[in-house]
Amino acid sequence: RYGCINVHASLLPRYRGAAPINWAIINGETETGVTTMLMDEGLDTGDMLLKKATPVDPEEDASSLHDRLAIMGADALDETVELLVAGKLTPEKQDNALSCYAPLLKKEDGLIDWSTGPLAIKNLVRGMNPWPGAFTWLDDRLVKVFRVRTGQGCGEAGAVLAADRDGIEVACNGGSVILEEIQLEGKKRLPVRDFLAGCRIAADTVLGKEV
What pLDDT does 121 receive? Predict the structure, then answer.
């Protein structure tokens, strides 16, 4: 008699859809959260019941944020049921004008575009971890990228500026990113210092290829 309740991993009406955690990180959001809502026929469009917000740490990825929101969501659901049964919750209509969509991720969404800026690339890597994973190409071999930091280098987009135990620095639009953990196709996931022990990458190597 209280209706069907759903827990959604965003602050509705933003990020309706299948991958709200990933897209919030990819888009550089600094805050997200969970929303309990009454289900209706639409996609995450039902009346909202309770919201819980949390900052997004600039270093956390979709996996760690997912785990935090899972705990928050369980607590929010417990509180929602108690308040709803006690008659202390008033459902709130969503403002469709404030909504945005978080579509299901596809593998090709993880392709790194080196012509974008350092922060956009870092956010993509964070948002795509653990699935489907951010990736680029090295001599026609796929390289998954799991962790990066931003840098101050400059050069042709996709060009390797340096490759040493501190990381593989790659130029992009307005700066550079430093790859810290990667996985070459058919090999193990490794910190860059261990990867370079078995695979040398010369400066001026250009990552990526046309698709």
Answer: 98
Helices (H), 17-128: 20-26, 62-85, 118-128
How far apart (Å, rounded) are the C-alpha atoms in residues 184 and 200?
A: 12
pLDDT of the residue at 2: 87
CB atoms within 10 A of CB 151: 18
Asked if residue 37 lies in contact with residue 46, where contact means CB atoms within 8 angstroms, the answer is yes
Backbone angles phi, psi at 88, to 5 degrees: -105, 15
DSSP bridge pairs for 164: 167
- pTM tops 0.90, yes or no: yes
Q: Which residue do the tokens 């996709």 mark? A: 158
State the Cα–Cα distance between residues 25 and 123, nearest whole angstrom: 6
What pLDDT digit, counting tens, does each position of 142-172 carry?
A: 999 999 999 999 999 999 999 999 999 999 9
Predicted local distance difference test score (pLDDT) of residue 211: 46
Positive or negative torsion for Cα 11, 15, 18, 19: negative
Q: Give dist(CA 176, CA 172) in Å, integer.
A: 5
Tokens found for residue 172: 């992009």
CA distance 81 to 85: 6
**End-to-end CA distance of the chain, in Å?**
53
Report the pLDDT averaged over residues 100-120.
97
- Dist. CA 153–CA 172, nearest whole Å: 9
